[in-house]
Structures are given as structure tokens and as C-alpha cells.
Design goal:
With 352 residues, the chain is of the alpha/beta class. The chain is 41% helix and 18% strand.
Length: 352
């Protein structure tokens, strides 16, 4: 039980830091309820997995937000930020607890699946890395995303960006605002020959129920995030983007095994590595490193990682997220950290 409580409190702190005071307060109430042996303790106190890796607190927050967005609980919806700008947990939590107790079976079913956030704000970091690569490697690009969820960030080059040095506010898609410092690369057109992605549980954006679930994981007091997600979802559907259901290690190994295509193959992921177990992470690394050893000047490979410092070999307690690239071009293997990026893409500090 203590491990679950600690996880809820840590996630509450992260939500507060990432600009969601509502979700932070909600999870603090859930942690208090766990400690008091309340309805959350009955639901989650004996959770069999790893609370942090399983995103347990975000599953619960998502279940409550899904109930609000779907109209499943009108009283709870009336206390949420969309309906009550002056929300207080004194009004929200009793209604949330009552819903959890009344809809036990529905909530338990919702909790069986991991959270899918597919944060479009991370595209600003990914785009910066791809632009940096475009100045150093031959085209065209062949793009492979691991943990792609609904595939929203496969269309990163069709987004609008609101930050220097490359504001693009007139191309459609979601508008990603980021405060950028340092000499980040300028925008350039990149020829993309192919793009594909995989996920253990991909979301089919043409299915209203699955799209509703994705919307539920947007924090309830962040309507701008929800608007970006919906714009990106419309773009993905119009573009015919699909994500393959597969283990990331198996998928990337199969994609890279036949050999690298002419140009630059880019394997990328964002805030993904903390979720697969270590054997899967090791297998991903082995598959990519093996393909890199076969690279040459005309068939290059890059591995773009937008991940917590702890997942890139740094301090386990660090709250920093790095944008890191490993490259193979037939010569020496190169690894460089390009930038420090907020996990929701609010800020980017270029350091390369």
C-alpha cells in the first residue's frame, strides 16, 4: 500500500509542476483516501504490478475524466473545471469517491489498460532533433516511432509551431507553443519517404470509443492540450496514419533486419522507455546498435530519444528530460545530447 501511496504523491507533484493544479489536488485526495482505507484503497491497495511504471494514478484520473466527458456522472461533471472555473476539492472529491464506489465494475475495467497520453507538445523537441539531423545526413528520411500510441506525432512535420527560430502558424494541424532558448536549428523542408509506428495497444482514432479514451487522459484543467490533441487526431485520420500492434523490440528488429534504406532511417520515441521492462529495453538497444554497425555513408541510421535522464544512464532521481541522438554513418558511432526539453514541450533549451 505504501508504494501505491508514494506513487500517487509523486505523480501529484509532477502534475503540479506541469501546470495541472486540478489533477495534482485530485491525486493528493486519492492518496489520502488510500491511507485512510477508503474507496481508492479498495480499488488499488493490492495492485499487483508496478504503480509508477503502470501509470496507476493516471489510470484513475483518466477514469474519472472519462466519466465526466461521457456524461456518465452529471454531478461529478458539474464540479470539474470545464463547468466550474472555481472548482474546489471539497466539492469534487466527495462526488469522485461516490462515483468510484457506485461504478466499481466500470472503473475496474477502465483501469485494466495503461494510460495513453500521446502528448503532441513533445513534437517540438522531436522536430528540433529531426531538423538538426537534416543538416548532417542524406535524405530521404525513413521514420520509425516506438510507443506511437495513436500515431499523432508521426505527423510532426504537418504541425504548426509557435516559437522562434521557426514559427509555422499557417500550415494546419495542432499549434504547439514552446519557449525556446539557445541556437536551435532553423526550419527546413525534409523529404520523408516513409513513416511507420508501433505500440502494444495502439489507439484507432476512427473508433469513437478509443478516441474518447485518449481524450480522457488529457488533464481536466488543460483545455489547450485537449484542443491540440483533437486537431492532431483529425490530421492523423485525414492522413491515413495507422499504428501497428507489436512489441517495440520485435517490431524495430524486424524493420531494421533487412538492411537500411538509402538515406537516413530515424528510430525515435518520446517518454517511452520507462514503460517497457528492462529485457525489452535491452532488446531494442541491441537491434538498433546491430543495424548501426551495418550503416554506411549512403545508408545512415539515427536513434532519437526524448526521455528522462534516468532512462539515458543518468541520475535516477533526476527530473530532467533530454533530447539525445545516436548516429551511425559507417564511420565512428556518434552520440550527442541536443537539448533539455520540458516533458510537455513547454520549454526547450538547446545545448548542442
Amino acid at each position: 500500500m505504501s508504494q501505491v501511496i508514494d506513487h500517487f504523491r509523486r505523480q501529484a507533484g509532477a502534475c503540479r509542476d506541469l501546470g495541472s493544479p486540478f489533477t495534482a489536488a485530485l491525486l493528493e485526495c486519492a492518496a489520502d483516501d488510500l491511507g485512510a482505507g477508503g474507496v481508492v484503497a479498495q480499488l488499488l491497495g493490492d495492485w499487483p504490478g508496478r504503480p509508477q511504471a503502470d501509470g496507476l494514478s493516471l489510470r484513475l484520473a483518466g477514469a474519472l475524466h472519462a466519466a465526466v466527458q461521457s456524461g456518465r456522472d452529471a454531478a461529478l461533471a458539474a464540479a470539474y473545471p470545464r463547468a466550474d472555473a472555481d472548482w474546489t476539492m471539497a466539492r469534487v472529491w466527495p462526488r469522485a469517491a461516490a462515483f468510484l464506489a457506485r461504478e466499481d465494475d466500470w472503473v475496474r475495467a477502465f483501469l485494466t489498460r495503461p494510460p495513453q497520453t500521446n502528448e503532441t507538445g513533445r513534437a517540438t523537441g522531436l522536430a528540433a532533433a529531426f531538423l538538426w539531423l537534416a543538416g548532417r545526413a542524406p535524405g530521404p528520411f525513413h521514420m520509425l516511432e516506438l510507443g506511437a500510441s495513436a500515431g499523432l506525432n508521426l505527423a510532426w512535420d504537418r504541425f504548426s509551431y509557435l516559437h522562434p527560430p521557426w514559427a509555422r502558424s499557417d500550415v494546419g494541424g495542432p499549434l504547439i507553443p514552446t519557449q525556446v532558448s539557445g541556437p536551435a536549428p532553423a526550419w527546413r523542408t525534409i523529404a520523408i519517404a516513409h513513416r511507420a509506428g508501433c505500440d502494444q495497444n495502439p489507439i484507432d482514432l476512427t473508433d469513437p470509443a478509443q478516441l474518447a479514451r485518449l481524450r480522457a487522459y488529457v488533464w481536466a484543467d488543460q483545455p489547450a492540450h485537449l484542443a491540440r490533441l483533437e486537431a492532431a487526431a483529425r490530421l492523423a485520420v485525414a492522413s491515413g496514419v495507422t499504428v501497428e500492434r507489436a512489441c517495440a523490440a520485435d517490431w524495430v528488429g524486424a524493420r531494421l533486419a533487412p538492411g537500411l534504406a538509402a538515406g537516413l532511417t530515424v528510430v525515435y520515441h518520446s517518454v517511452f522507455l520507462q514503460y517497457p521492462p528492462k529485457p525489452v529495453r535491452d532488446a531494442i538497444r541491441v537491434a538498433i546498435e546491430a543495424a548501426g554497425e551495418r550503416a554506411d555513408v549512403d545508408h545512415q541510421l539515427a536513434w532519437v530519444r526524448f526521455e528522462p535522464e534516468a532512462m539515458l544512464g543518468g541520475a535516477r532521481a533526476s527530473s530532467v528530460f533530454w533530447l539525445n541522438v545516436v548516429m551511425w554513418d559507417g564511420r565512428a558511432r556518434q552520440e550527442i545530447t541536443l537539448a533539455e526539453v520540458d516533458p510537455h514541450g513547454r520549454t526547450l533549451t538547446w545545448i548542442a
